[in-house]
Amino acid sequence: MSLFNLRIFVTMLVFVGLTSAASAGGEFLDGCLALKGNEQLFKKTTVKWEAEQRGETVIAYATINVEGKATVCGMHMNKGAVPQAELRRMLSKSEIKSGKQTMVRNLSYFTNACNEVGCKLCAPCYMTTLNWKPAYARPKFVPGVDDPAQ
Questions:
Q1: Contact at 8 Å (CB) between 70 and 131?
Q2: Which pLDDT band holds residue 116 (cuts at 50, 70, 90)?
């Protein structure tokens, strides 16, 4: 394991174990990737919603190497009026890609980092079956758009 990968394991919340996932043969990981201390790993994109009060959703996501497999972590934060049904639909149709390679489809596991109680800036992660490649460190969010005006 490289020093870089070891640093990621030390700075993120420890993944205690693996649980089986229902999609594409990958696995959801217990724990999450903390934003604090890992800011350089996260990319972000903003989805703007057309509503009475214009709202937006900031989506933060990261791709990391866990045990030699490409792993996608993510969360979202809402500001203003955000239509929840459309947000859920958009996330379920969205993908994370690297070049032409789809790393994961259906981002409905990306949690809402903030609620009425406060914010938990820690992204849940899904370990894919893809063997890690350095190019995977440059992911792109591809929205499943049919409602948001981007």
A1: yes
A2: confident
pTM above 0.85, yes or no: no
80-101 pLDDT, tens digit per residue, is 889 999 999 999 999 999 999 9
Residue 147 has which token pair? Answer: 């409602």
Q: Between the CA of residue 105 and those of 22, 55, 144, what are the distances in Å?
A: 12, 24, 10
Q: Which residues share a beta bridge with 28?
A: 19, 126
Contacts 24+ apart (CB under 8 A), 109-116: 109/28, 109/74, 110/59, 110/61, 110/74, 110/75, 110/76, 111/75, 111/76, 112/75, 112/76, 112/77, 112/78, 113/60, 113/75, 113/76, 113/77, 114/77, 114/78
Cα 97 to the chain's mean position, in Å?
Answer: 12
- Residue that has been written with the tokens 């996260």 in this structure: 42
